[in-house]
Structure formats: C-alpha cells, structure tokens
C-alpha cells in the first residue's frame, strides 16, 4: 500500500496547494495595478511639458517673425535716439564754433582795414547762420522710454522658451489630483477583487480530507501490515496443504499407473500413505477453512464496501451527488461576499465542475462564479479612470505670465510709433542750413596774398576753425540723413511688430492645444489600463482559475485508490480467492481419490460393530494382519473425526 498511499497523499497535497494558491495568484495580479499606475504617472507628469512644447511648436514661425520685427523696431528706436543726441551735440558744437568764427573774422577784418590794403575782405563773412539750427531736445525727451527696450529681445526669447516649464508648473496641481484619483482607483480595484467568489470552503474540504488521510495513514499501514502478515501465514498453510495433497497424488498415481514397479506388499503401503496424505491435507483444509473464509470475508467486506461506496459511486456519478450535499462550495454560492446579486442561489454541481475543467473551461465559469461576480464590471476601464478624466477635462493653462510682458512690450512699441515724432522733424530745413558754405573764400589762398606773417598765421588758424566747423556740418548732415531714413520706415516696422505680437497673443489662447493633449493623454491612459485589464482577465481566467489539473488529479486519485488500493479484485484478493476456490474442489477430489485408492484388503468399518475391532486377512500371516488391522483402526478413527 505504501506507494499508493504516498501517491494519494501527494495528489491531495497538490490539490490543496493548487486551490489555496488561487487567491494568492489573484492578489498578485491585482497588486500589479501599481505597475500600471507608475507607468501612467510618468505619462501624466509629461502633460504640462507636452502642452508647452506643442504651443512652442505652433508659435515657432511667429516667434521668429516677431523677434525679427522687434529687433528692427528696437534698432530704429535706439538708433534714432543716438542720432538725435548726436544732432543735438553737433548743433551745440556748430553754434559754439560759429560764434568763435564770427569773432575771429571780425578781428581779422579790422586788422586788414588797418593795413590800408587794397584786398577785398567781403569774402570774410559767413554765409550760413548756424544759430538757426533748431533744437531736437523735445524729440529726445519724447524718446526717454527707449530704456524700456533694454533686454527686450532676450526677455521675449526667454519667455517663449520657458513655456514648457510654465505649463509644467501650471499643470502640477491637476496632476497631483489625478494621482490621488489613481490611488483611490487602486483601492477600489483591490476592494472589488475581494468580492471574487471565494474557494475557502473547497480548499477547507480538501485540507480536511488531506488531514484525515494523514491521520489515518498510520492505521492503514498497520492494517496493511497485519493483513499481509496473516496472509503470509495463510499462504504458508496453503503451501503445506498443497504439498501434502500433491505428494499424496504423486505417490498414489505412481502406484496406480505403474503397479508392477513396486512389490505387492509395498503397493498397499504406498496406497495407504497416499490416502493418509490426502486425508491429512483435506483435514487441514477443513480445520483452517473458517479462518480462510473469515479473512476473505473481511477483505471482501471492507474492500467491496469501500469499492462500492467510493469507486463504483465515482464511476456511476453518485459520488458527485454526495459531494453536492456536503456544501463544499458554499463560499462560492454568494455567501462569502456582498454583491448586488447576493440573494441569488445558483446550484453548483460537482460533475459540472469536473466536466467543465475536463473540457478546458475556466473554474470561473465551471463553478458559475460569473453568476455572482461581473467580470466586465470589475474590469470596466471608465470606472477607474473617471477621476482622471474629470481632472484632465478641467485642466487649463493660464499663460498670462507670458502675455503680460508682451503687453508691456507692445505698449512701448506703441509709444515709440506714436510719440517719437521722428516723421515730424523738418529735415529739409536742416539740409538747407547745412548745405550753405561757411565762407565763400579760400582762406589759405587769401593768406598767401598777404605779406604780413602775423596776419597770415591768423588766417591759417582761422582756416583750421572753418575746417572743424565744416566737419561738424558734415556729421550733422549724415545724422540728419540717417534720421530721415529711419523716420520713413520706423512706423512700418513698429506696426509689423505690433501685428506679430497680437497674433502671438491670440495664439496663446491654448485651449485647443490643451484639449488635444488631454484627449491624447486620456486615450493613452485608457490604452494602458485596457492592456493591464486584458492581462488581469487572462491571468484570472486562464492561469489562476485554470482547472485542467483538477480532473487529472482526481483521475490519479481514482487510479491510486480504486485500481491499486481499494479494488477487491486486485492481485492480492484474486490470488487469495482463487486459492480458496481451488482448495474446495481439491478437498472433494482428494476424498474421492482416497476412496478409490484405498487398499482392497481393508474391510469397511461399517462391517464391525465397534470402531476398535481389527480384521485378520486370511491371505496374510498373523503379523501382517495385526499391522493392517492397526492401520485400518487409525484410518477409521480419522475418518470419524473428519465426517
């Protein structure tokens, strides 16, 4: 029995461990929700950065244009201010030099008049009156806001490229709310999984059966030891009886078949010996037959009843009906959890479970768990992403921190365009005043006509002053020309800058981009959770509750218990039964043979009134007669003992 008992114990333990492992497998896959949450969390934290990059990408061309036009406007403004300051400074220099020149020309004319020369001094008078050059202080004051343009280009560049960071900061509170919703969804998912019908009653039943088997194993082994010990003793008796009968048959048959081989007097001895051996064997059979019958009865009783109760009821299906009455599936029948359908009472049949598992169906459907647990509701994606969806729908990005500096820049550009008054400066008056020559005489040539060295030297100094004045005039001409050129284009550049800034500010209404990104993020979250739930469904139905092992284990138990252990028609029972079956005909056959082989000289005991009387054969001597009479006396006494 030991190999079969070990096999049964191992099968029961495997059955118990496999059933008890189902909740652990379910809990394991349920806890993997944290993996999905971690992956989705990474995606959600990228939402703000993704929105910012999309906004930046959509504004890329406008940003380049506004920076270019803003650069032109700032260049016009700063260059205009610089030129106006140069004009103002040059005007001061021109007027200062003009006064000195007038004084020196007056002195020079007086010196030449004292010489009573015949030189014509009318050329020593200035044609241009630089005191008439208008002041541009008002225009300079109008451009006192130009300092507001300092660092504007860098500021705009920094603002635009900081949009992803700004969006990330703005979306952080929403992401934190989503993470709280995910945590809550994980708790809901874990709690919902606890409503899955329990296998506790089934597991407990198998565990109890295994414990009962383990507790009974020593008794079964002891019973097996006693049974085989008694059987071994009985087999030895059967062997002795068989040897006695076989010896008697061999001796008797040899005398009957070949009587001439033995002397006449030895034939009777051999016949009597064969008869006695057969009688002794038959007697031992009668003496121990009740023990054989008791042993066969006990074995057949326990084995047959066990076979009828377990094995035949298993093959006939009665065992499944018996199991159905034991409430081993009570925890699956709605009593182990609370659901909206907890009042349902679905009949769970053991044979349906066995047949379903045999055909490859999941235990979830074989045990009708779907009647109590709605798998589609349990794995409903929208139920767990409802909070995330609401947070994504309420997500908004306020880019006022970006638009406010743009408003300030736009106001500065408007002031430059409307209040700089560069286009109102009378550049023609500047050109007219500056186009008139300072003197109509060449002072160097005039000095060469004079013989007086002192006056010639003074004229040379005066010529240098005229050259300096002329350089100032040329510089102012250049500045005025540049200012006039700027005045022709600065409003166009300013308008272009304002238009570009307005376009960008309109584009900063990022609701469409936010909506697009949130829809994409929600779709991504849905796909991630759907993939995870597909795995959950597969693991629960096809891994955790896969039950193809159940019929295999039950069949193994049937083979080990019924075919190899319980079956009353196995080798042990069959051998013992056949031995007993053959011994009964053997007794009858031995008695008949013993009567046939009885020596003819022996008189039947019925001819004597008393059992102790001995007949004397006429053809023997007295000694032989006495011997045969004693043998017959023993024979008749033994015959009476048997019958």
Question: What does the model show?
Answer:
Helix content is 77%, strand content 0%. The protein is built from 23 helices and no strands. The protein is rod-shaped, with a radius of gyration of 65 Å. Mean pLDDT is 79; it is low at 334-342 and 602-643.
Compute the number of strand runs: 0
Helix content: over 70%
| Ends apart, CA distance between termini | 41 Å
Spans of at least 5 consecutive residues whose pLDDT stays below 50 are 334-342, 602-643
Shape annotation = rod-shaped
Mean model confidence by pLDDT = 79
What is the number of helices? 23
The biggest sheet, with number of strands, parallel, antiparallel or mixed sense and barrel status, is: none
Structural class designation: mainly alpha
Strand content: under 5%
Question: What is the H-and-E element order?
Answer: HHHHHHHHHHHHHHHHHHHHHHH
Q: Taking Cα atoms only, what radius of gyration do you get, to the nearest Å?
A: 65 Å
Present the secondary structure layout.
Elements: H1 2-31, H2 33-45, H3 47-58, H4 60-114, H5 137-142, H6 152-161, H7 163-193, H8 200-257, H9 264-316, H10 318-324, H11 350-358, H12 363-366, H13 375-378, H14 381-384, H15 386-393, H16 400-419, H17 427-435, H18 443-448, H19 453-507, H20 511-544, H21 549-566, H22 571-596, H23 622-642
Helix pairs in contact: 1-8, 1-20, 1-21, 2-7, 2-20, 3-7, 3-20, 4-6, 4-19, 6-16, 7-15, 8-9, 8-22, 9-21, 9-22, 9-23, 11-21, 15-20, 16-19, 17-19
Task: Describe the structure concisely for a colleague.
By secondary structure, the chain is an all-alpha fold.
């Amino acid at each position: 029995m030991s190999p079969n008992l070990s096999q049964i114990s191992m099968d029961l333990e495997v059955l118990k461990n496999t059933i008890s492992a189902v909740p652990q497998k379910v809990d394991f896959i349920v806890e993997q929700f944290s993996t999905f949450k971690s992956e989705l969390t990474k995606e959600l934290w990228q939402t703000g950065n993704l929105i910012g990059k999309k906004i930046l990408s959509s504004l890329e061309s406008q940003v380049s244009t506004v920076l270019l036009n803003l650069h032109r406007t700032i260049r016009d403004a700063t260059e205009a201010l610089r030129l106006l300051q140069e004009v103002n400074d040059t005007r001061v220099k021109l007027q200062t030099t003009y006064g000195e020149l007038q004084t020196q020309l007056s002195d020079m004319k007086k010196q030449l008049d004292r010489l009573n020369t015949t030189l014509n001094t009318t050329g020593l008078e200035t044609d241009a009156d630089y005191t008439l050059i208008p002041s541009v202080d008002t225009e300079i004051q109008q451009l006192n806001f130009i300092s507001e343009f300092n660092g504007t280009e860098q500021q705009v560049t920094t603002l635009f490229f900081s949009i992803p960071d700004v969006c990330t900061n703005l979306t952080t509170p929403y992401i934190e709310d989503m993470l709280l919703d995910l945590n809550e969804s994980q708790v809901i998912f874990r709690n919902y999984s606890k409503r899955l019908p329990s296998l506790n009653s089934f597991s407990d039943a198998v565990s109890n059966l295994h414990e009962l088997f383990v507790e009974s194993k020593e008794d079964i082994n002891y019973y097996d030891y006693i049974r085989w010990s008694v059987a071994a003793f009985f087999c030895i008796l059967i062997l002795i009886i068989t040897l006695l009968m076989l010896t008697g048959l061999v001796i008797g048959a040899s005398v009957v078949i070949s009587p001439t081989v033995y002397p006449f007097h030895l034939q009777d001895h051999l016949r009597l010996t064969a008869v006695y051996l057969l009688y002794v064997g038959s007697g031992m059979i009668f003496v121990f037959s009740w023990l054989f019958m008791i042993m066969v009865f006990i074995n057949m009783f326990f084995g047959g009843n066990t076979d009828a109760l377990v094995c035949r009821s298993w093959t006939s299906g009665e065992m499944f009906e018996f199991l159905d009455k034991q409430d081993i599936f009570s925890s699956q029948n709605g009593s182990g959890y609370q659901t909206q359908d907890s009042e349902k009472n679905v009949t769970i049949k053991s044979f349906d479970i066995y047949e379903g598992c045999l055909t490859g169906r999941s235990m979830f459907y074989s045990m009708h768990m779907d009647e109590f647990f709605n798998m589609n509701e349990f794995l409903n994606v929208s139920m767990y992403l409802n909070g995330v969806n609401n947070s994504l729908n309420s997500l908004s990005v306020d880019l006022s921190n970006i638009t406010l500096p743009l408003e300030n820049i736009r106001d500065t550009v408007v002031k430059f365009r409307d209040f700089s008054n560069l286009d109102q400066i009378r550049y023609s008056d500047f050109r007219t005043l500056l186009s008139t020559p300072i003197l109509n005489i060449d002072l160097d040539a005039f000095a060469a006509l004079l013989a007086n060295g002192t006056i010639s030297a003074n004229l040379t100094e005066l010529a240098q002053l005229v050259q300096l004045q002329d350089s100032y005039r040329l510089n102012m001409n250049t500045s005025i020309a540049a200012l006039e050129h700027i005045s022709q284009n600065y409003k166009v550049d300013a308008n272009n800058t304002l238009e570009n800034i307005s376009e960008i500010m309109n584009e900063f209404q990022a609701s469409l981009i936010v909506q697009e990104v949130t829809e994409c993020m929600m779709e991504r979250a849905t796909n991630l959770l759907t993939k995870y739930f597909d795995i959950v469904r597969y693991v629960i139905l096809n891994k955790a509750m896969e039950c193809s092992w159940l019929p295999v284990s039950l069949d193994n138990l049937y083979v080990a218990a019924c075919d190899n252990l319980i079956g009353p028609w196995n080798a042990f029972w069959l051998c013992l039964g056949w031995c007993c079956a053959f011994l009964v005909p053997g007794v009858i056959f031995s008695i008949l043979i013993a009567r046939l082989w009885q020596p003819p000289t022996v008189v039947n005991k019925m001819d004597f009134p008393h059992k102790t009387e001995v007949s004397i054969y006429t053809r023997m001597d007295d000694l032989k007669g006495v011997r045969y009479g004693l043998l017959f006396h023993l024979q008749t006494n033994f015959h009476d003992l048997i019958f």
